[in-house]
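Most newcomers find our protein records easier to grasp once they have seen one. Each record describes a single protein and holds just a pair of labelled lines. A learned vocabulary of local backbone shapes supplies the integers on the structure line. Nothing more is needed to start thinking about how sequence determines fold. The record below serves as our worked example for the rest of this section.
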Amino acid sequence: MEELVEQSVQVCFARVVSLYPDRLAIKGATRQYTFNALNPEANRVAAAILDQRPERQEQIGILADQEQALVAALGILKSGKTYVPLDPSYPQAKLAQILQECEIETIVTDSSHLPYVQTLSNGRARVISMDELDAGLADADPDVIVGPDALAAIIYTSGSTGQPKGVMQSHRNILHRVISATKAFDIRSDDRVTLLSSLSY
């Protein structure tokens, strides 16, 4: 299992898709995906990002419902870029601070949060709505390669002890946490895990 941390999140995810294509990957209040259904959805998000900024390394914001936020995070990683969760429960001033500090110029959202995101971005960021993606976007795995030390996410602290700070997470960091939890709780392929915390935690 330790060799998994020497890869990227998307490489490990592709392996899971090939092993368990028809198993339930995400089940939320309004949507659910098997791994075979989740993969092309994430690929379309990646294609929408790469259509505009194929070469540029950047941080991309996510503000969406829980299950859609997971699709967005996968899509952003598949595009070779870094995701920054924007929790809709945070005060607008804190979200504005995150947008400015991370120099976010693209935000991925869903239809229910689209008006709020448009107000929040105030025309300074490109907004991608996952519910309004071009039907012609490619849904195959993008030809993007990143290493285990590439920046995968920036997660902001709550700010309860002072100014909120962004904590950088590499692909290796994320995979190490997954492996540690898998071992600690003896999680198997048939198990289901309840995701109670937001992507921002």
Summary: The longest strand covers residues 151-156. The chain has a mean pLDDT of 91.
